Amino acid sequence: MNKIHILDENTANKIAAGEVVERPSSIVKELVENSIDALSHHIEVEIADGGISFIRITDDGSGMSPEDAKLAILRHATSKIRLAEDLSTIHSLGFRGEALPSIAAVSRFSLTTRLHDNEPLATYIEVAGGTTTDIREAGGNVGTTIVVKDLFFNTPARKKFLKTAATEASHINDILIKLALSYPNVAFKFINNKRLVLSTPGNNQLQDTLTSLYGQKVAPDILPISYDNTVDSIGISGYLGKPTLLKSNRQWQTIIVNSRVINSRSIAKALDNAYHSLLPKSGYPLAVLNITVNTDTIDVNVHPQKSEIKFSDEQKIFRAVYKAVTNVLSAAHAPSQLAASAELKNINNYHPTPNYNTSHKGQESLYASPPVHRVLSWQEEPLPLTTARIAMEQEDVIFQDTPPAADIMGCDQQEPQFTLQPLGQVDDCYIISRGHDGLYIIDQHAAHERILYDKMSQHTERIPAQQLLVPIFMDCDATEITIITDYQDIFYNLGFSLDLVGPSAMRISELPSDIPLSEAENFIRQILEFIQNMHNPTAQELRHSCLQIAACRAAIKAGEALNMRQMQALINELCNTNLPYTCPHGRPAMIRFSPHDLDKMFKRTGF
Ligand SMILES: Nc1ncnc2c1ncn2[C@@H]1O[C@H](COP(=O)(O)OP(=O)(O)O)[C@@H](O)[C@H]1O
Ligand SMILES: [Mg+2]
Questions:
Q1: What is d(CA 281, CA 586) in angstroms, rounded to the nearest whole number?
Q2: Where are the beta strands (DSSP E) in 293-343?
Q3: pLDDT digit string, tens, across residues 22-69
Q4: Do 27 and 168 form a contact (C-beta atoms < 8 A)?
Q5: How far apart are CA 168 and CA 151, in angstroms?
Q6: Phi, psi at residue 298, to the nearest 5°?
Q7: Which ligand is nearest to the Cα of residue 143, counting in written order?
Q8: pLDDT tens profile 77-97
Q9: pLDDT tens digits, residue range 542-581?
Q10: Rounded to whole angstroms, how far apart are CA atoms 542 and 487?
Q11: What residues are paired with 369 via a beta bridge?
Q12: Which residues approach ligand 1 with their CB closer than 6 A?
């Protein structure tokens, strides 16, 4: 019995039309999707010349009967839907019945297919530029092989739009990686110019599939994600890269919805937002997000290449992804995780070979114990940061009676999540400290930035402001005045009070409480410059960036000497933040060396 039928005109017309075959990678995508729909376990893709002169896809799926094979190359011929309504419950990747005829129309195409072992022979069909040139019985394995040669040989205008073979091959590589990640139960092979470049195990383990594609080296830096919202029927599983594992574009991000690889700006945005303060300015983390939703809450029939879908409630998906990713990242800030591990690797790489001839004496003088200081015990109240700043300005101040700055910021003083004891400061920039699980090096500026950023971002309304006894006057040009007027709310919420006093002067009468007077003007100018360079920032992006700038401006600088109590205060507050390992710009704030790491550096252990 035939499985394939031609859709009636009415149904065919309801199906999003458009160009299916844009480039070799779109052919590979369509054909591999067909192999997946045919329930193949093994799919092999071989190309030459970027797929422009040669593509062959072989699968061990269901195969087609001779009658179905003849129908398959006709327009609107499909075994996957009957009516447009079937699209709301669709589980297959294909549904239009357009791929095979569209590909055969612009290439020299052949199809060899055999239904099952009971059929002695396969069916062979050849089509050149849309004209069937051969149909016959042939030898062949169970399953289907499709060969596409000389793409666009009959449409030279379209051929001109193709890029170099290397670029086309890399597009094919990218799409195959994503398809392989969405079907870990299928073993994929990709051969480019006779070289095997990809091979997945097909053992239904996403982690194995991921490492077979991206290399075993990513294994320690990926975190599983699992989220289930039964109310909205949204499930999310997959893997996320730690914020240290970055690419300069989104190549490492695979978004899969109901087993279909898609592009989605809102899901990508949710990822960006969740990683927000953990990443440097440029860089995209690795993510494989496997999202399942009810089939009736999406429309798959909106894009000719089926690479986008429409969600009935996009906000819901956005929130679910944001929440799922945030959960994983905040659970993963334990010492050995995130920035520290990768940073450590770099340090190890740059470590000079130890000189074994160095005498014991020489080492002693190098590693003399730090001067003994009294260290606050953990029962004592941690010294608040602003107090530390005051202390730096007036040396002999008495600390105990100073009101905690955390109160000013409306932030609770909690028990530190883990405890560190400062040992000393190096280069007026790094605090060396001891924890129960190793040696910690803290960048004092980055650490303070993280503390301030966290405190400020807890204020959803206005950041607490200090009234200035003597206002500051600032000269502004016309653009600056316009920006300040347009973004009045932003400045107010950041803790500024700004008034225009004349055509080119601004009066500052209030400042965010953590910003030192001397930094006020620079801070405002930096925000102005930032707003000028941003393209339509959202309120959230603006706030994040302004807080980043504020935290940076207000933070103690590298180059400031700290005493032991100031160091202890800084460390306590850092340990109380949610993400003590990175500053808001994504740089490391703290690096840990476990005893094992130290042993390794001193070559006391093999590994
Ligand atoms: N690799 C394959 N194995 C088995 N059947 C296939 C294969 N490729 C295509 N077919 C059959 O040919 C039909 C047409 O394929 P296609 O033009 O891609 O349309 P669609 O996938 O949208 O149905 C499919 O519905 C399917 O029945
Ligand atoms: Mg198809």
A1: 8
A2: 298-299, 310-311
A3: 899 999 999 999 999 999 999 999 999 999 999 999 999 999 999 999
A4: no
A5: 12
A6: -130, 155
A7: 1
A8: 999 999 888 888 889 999 989
A9: 788 888 888 888 888 888 889 999 899 999 999 888 888 8
A10: 10
A11: none
A12: 3-4, 30, 34-35, 38, 59, 61-64, 72, 77-80, 94-100, 144
- Global pTM value: 0.62
Amino acid of residue 245: L
Distance CA 181, CA 290 (A): 9
Three-state DSSP class for residue 153: coil
What are the distances in angstroms from CA 175 to CA 33, 53, 198, 409?
11, 19, 12, 49
Distance 22 CA to ligand 1 centre (A): 19
pLDDT tens by residue, 536-550? 667 777 788 888 888
Distance in angstroms (rounded) separating the CA atoms of residues 5 and 79: 6
Give the Å distance between the CA of 315 and the centre of ligand 1.
Answer: 34
- The CA angle 299-325-453, to the nearest 5 degrees, is 130
Q: Locate the ligand 1 atom nearest the alpha carbon of residue 59 and give its number.
A: 1
Domains of the chain: 5-205 (3.30.565.10), 215-331 (3.30.230.10), 374-607 (3.30.1540.20)
* Cβ-based neighbours of 533, under 8 Å, separated by 6 or more: none
Contact 143, 44 (CB under 8 A): no
Give the residue from 43, 89, 12, 529 showing the smallest Cα distance to 297: 89
Q: Compute the distance from residue 34 Cα to the ligand 2 centre, in Å.
A: 5
Closest to 416 in 3D by CA, of 590, 569, 595, 586: 569
Q: Distance between CA 120 and CA 134 in Å, rounded?
A: 20
Q: How far is the CA of 146 from the centre of ligand 1 (A)?
A: 11
Sorted by sequence, the CB contacts under 8 Å of residue 304 that are 6+ apart come out as: 16, 17, 18, 19, 20
Between CA 93 and CA 417 the distance in angstroms is 48
The average pLDDT across 267-281 equals 83
Residue with tokens 């209030």: 510
Structural tokens at position 573: 């507050």
Question: Which two structure tokens, joined as six digits, stand for 245?
Answer: 């594992």
Give the pair of three-digit tokens for residue 452.
């301030």
- CB of 41 within 8 A of CB of 156? no
Measured between alpha carbons, how far is residue 88 from residues 146, 339, 566, 581 in Å?
30, 44, 62, 46
